[in-house]
Write a structure and sequence with these properties.
heterodimer, A: Alpha-Beta Plaits, 5-stranded antiparallel β-sheet, 19 helices, extended, B: mainly alpha, V-type ATP synthase subunit C fold
Chain lengths: ~625, ~350
Amino acid sequence: MLRPLPMKHVRLLVMTDDLPQASLTLAETESFHPDERPPESQALAGVPGREYREHYRQAATRLDKIAKLVDVPATPPITQLHVVHPDELAAVGILLRERWEEASRFEESFRRLDDEERFIRDQEASLANFANLKIDLGKLRSKTRFLDFYVGMVPRENVSRLQGAVQLADHLLFNYLERGDSAHVIIVGPRGEGEAELSSVLTSAGFQALPIPSDIAGMDPARKREELQTRRAELAGQRETLRTELTQWGREHHETLVDARRTLLLAEPFVNLGPAVHSAGHLAMLAGWVPARAVAKLDDRLGASLALPFDMTVRNPRPDERALVPTVPARSPLLAPFTTLVKQYGIPQYGEIDPTPLFAVTFLLMFGMMFGDVGHGAVIALTAFLFRRKLKGFAWLGIALGLSSMLFGFVFGSVFGVEDWLPALWMSPLHDPILMLKVALGWGIAFIIVACLLGIYNRVVTGNIEGAIFAPHGAVNLLFYLGFLVGGYGLATAGRFGWVPMLAVVGALSALAVYQWRHLTGPIAEKALIVFIETLDTVIVYLSNTLSFLRVSAFSLNHAALAIAIFTLADMLGTVGTVITLILGNLFILVLEGGIVMIQVMRLEYYEGFSRYFSGDGHEFTPLRLRRGTEAS
Amino acid sequence: MSAIAEAYLNTRISAMSVRLLDTPALTGLAELKLPALAERFGLEPLLDEQLPPRSRARAVEQTLLHLLLADLAILLRPLDATGRGLLLAWARKYALINLKTLIRGKLYGLDQTEIRENLFDLPARVRLPHQDLYRAENVLELLRVLEGGPFRLIARQARESYEQRRDPFVLEAAVDSRYYAELVRQANQLQGIDAQAVQHLLGAVLDRINLLWLLRFRFSFGFSPSEAFYHLVPSKRLLHRERLLELANVDGFEQLLEALPEPLNERLAGAGSLIEVQRRLGGLLHEECRRTLAGGRSGVARALAYLFLREHDTHQLYALIEGRLLKLPQEVVDIALGLAPPNCPMDLPTAA
C-alpha cells in the first residue's frame, strides 16, 4: 500500500491509419499515460493528425458555442464504440458549422432585441428630459432652410473629440444628458458643406439618432409612456417567441447535436495524445507509461482491435527517467480525502513511498489526542454525516476525525468537557500534565525517526545514495539525532551524556561539516562561517522539531482547561445564562479550538514529517480516457 | 513605490540599458549574416531551412516579442499597482494588434488557421481577456463577443460602420485611439515626480502619433478636417487640443509643417514626404527617451523609456532579419535601419 504501483514504459509502433483506433483502445483501457518527450530517432520527426486535431478543435468549438444556447449534454452515454475517421470528423465539423450559423442567427436576434430595449430606455430618459425644456423641440425634427440639426446619443468617451470635430465643420454640440455609457447630444450648425463632412464623423463616433415625436410640443407624457411600454411589451413578446423558436430548434436538432458530441468524444483520445505521437511515413510511434499489471491486458486489447500489424515494446523505467514516471495515487475511497490533503504538498515521485496511509493514521491519532472528547467528537462525526452530500469526499474525513476524537474522549473520560460522566480508560490530561508531555515527546521522537528512515529509504530507492547518507535528514543526521537523544536521556536521568552518544553526536556533526566544506566554494572564512551556521542549525532544528510535538499534549490540556473555564463561567450565571454559556462555549470549542487543532496537525505533518521524507515533485498518473456518461446520467 | 523598490528598479533599468543598440552597434549588426544573427540573439528558427521565409520571419518576430515581454516582466516586479498598470497598458498594444488582425481576418473571410498563424502568442496578463474572440467565425459574431467585454463601446459603434461600409478602418482607428487614451488615463493616475515625467514622455509619443495620423488622414486618405481631428488623441505637450483644431484646418502638407510649434517645425523643415517626417519624428522621440533614461529621476518614466527604445531595437532587428531572409540588397536594409538616407537606390542590383 505504501509502495508505488510498478510502471512500465511502453513504446507502440502502429500504422498511421490505425492511430485513431489505437488511441481509442488506449483510452478504453484507461491505463496509458502519454510520454510527450520528443523521439530519440530523428526519423520519427513527423507529427501525424495535425489536420485531424484542427477539424476536432473547430467542431468542438462550434458545439460548445451551440451548447451555450440549447441543452447539449457534455458527456452523453456511448454504447457503441467506433473509430472516428478524418472524413467523419470533417463532416461533423461542416454539420456543426451549419447548425452554428442557424444558432448564431438566434443569438444575433437576441442582441438586436437587447439593443432595441436599450434604445427605448434611452428614449424614455430623453423624452422625460425634453418635456422639461422650454423650447419647441418639434422644430428639431426636420432640417430648416438654414439650420442643420442632429439629436441623438454617442458613447460618453467620444463626446469631447466629437465636440472638436463638429466645431471644425462649423457646428456646435450640446451635451444635455448623460446616462450610463451614453451621452445625449444635440448638434446644430448651418446647412451646407459642413453637413456632408459631419456625416462620416458621426458614423465614426457611433452617433445614434433619437427620433423626436411629431407632437412633442403638446405631448401627453402619460400617453407617450404608454406607447413606449407597449413597444417594450412587443419586444418582450418577440423575445418570448424567439425563445420558443430556439427551444423548438434545439429539440429538432437535439439528436444530431448529441450524436456530434458522441463523435467528438470518440475522437478526443487521439487529439489528446498530441505530442506523444510521432511518425515516419506510414509508421507511427506512441510512447507512454502503463501500470505493470495492465500491460498484458493492453497488449490483448490492441491485438483484438487493430486491423494492421503493430509492435509493442515494454521496458522498465531507466534511472534517469524516474522523474518522468507518473505516480498512481492511492485509490482507496477511505483514503481519498487524505490524498487531497497530501496533494496540497505535492505528488510523490515515482519510487518514493506514498505517504497517504501513514499521513491518514498519524493525522487521526494526533487530532484525537489533541481534541479528545466523546461529545465533541460525536458532534463532528454527526455533522459530517448529515452534510455528507455537500461535503462529498470530505464527509468521511469529518466522520473519521469525529470518531478519533471520541476514541480519545473515552481514553480521557471526557464528554463535552465533563469528566465525571464516564470513567476514563486511562486518565484525564489534567491529572498528570507532565506524563502527557512525556507521551507527546515520545510520540514526536518516534515520528521524527520514522520520517528520517522514510527519507533515507526514498533516497536509496531513487538512487541518491549520497543524499541518503549526507543530505538533510539522511543517515548521518539520524545518527546525530539518536546520539543526541540517548545522551540527553542519560543527562536527564543519570546526570551524564555518555561517551558513546557523545562520539555519535561529534562524529555525525563532523562528517556533516566536512561534507559541506567540500561542497562549498569561496573564501575560507566564508566557508567556515557557513559550515558553523549549518552545523548549529542541525542541532537547533532537531531540538526544536522534537519540542514542537509538545503541542500535541498542550492542546489536550488546553481542551480540558477550556471546558473548565466554560463551566466556571456558567456556574456564575443563572439557569438561562448557564444554558446559553454552555451552548456557546461548546460551539466556541468546536469551531475555534477544532480549527486550530486541524491547523496544528497539518503543520506537524507537513513541516516535521513531509519535509523529511517527501519531495512532492512527482506527477500524477493521468491516463488517456474516453469521457462518456452512463445511461442514468 | 518604496525607496528600495525605486532604487532596485533604477539599477535594473541601468543594467538593462547596456543592451540597447546605438548606431555603431546597429552598423555592426547590419554587417552580420543570418547564422551569426541567429547565434547572437538565440533565434534558432532562423536556421531551420525547411520552413518558408514567411514562417521563419514570423517565428523570429514572435521570439523577439517574447524577449521584449520578458524585459517587461522584469520591470513590472518592483512597480506598484499604478506603475504596473501603465506598463501593462503599453504592452497591451500587442493584444490590440491581435484584435485588429482578427477583425481584418474575419472581415476578409480568411481561414481560422491563417488568422491564428498571424496572431502573437502573448502572456496571460497582456492578452485579450476573451478567448471567445478567437473562436468567432464571422464579423458579426466577433462584434457580439466584443460587445460583452471591455471593448463594448468600440464594438457598438463599429457595428454600424461595418454594416454600412464593411470597412475595418473605423474600428481599427477606434481601437488605436482607445489604446492611447488608456495610456493617458493610466499616466494621469500617477502621482508626484512620476506623473510629471511620464506625462512629459507620453506627450512626446502622442505628439508624434498625432502629427503622423493628421498628415496621413488629411493628405493620404483625404479626410475632412473634422474627421481627421476626431481620430486624434490630444497630448498635454505640444499638440494639445486647440493646436490640433488649428492644424486640422490647414490645407497643405508643407503649410501644416510650417504651422507646427517649435521644435517640431524646425526639425521637420524641408521634410518632403510622410516617410521622412516619420523618420525625423522617430529620431526626436528616440532622443527624448534617451534623455529620460539617462537623466530621469522617475523609475516608471525610465522603465517606459527603456521599453520604447527596446521595442525600437526589436523592430530594427526584425527589419534586418527580414531583409536577410528576403535576400534584399544591403542598401535597402541600411535604409530600413535608418543607417542611410531614404533615397531610392536606382543602381541597385536586382534582388534575388
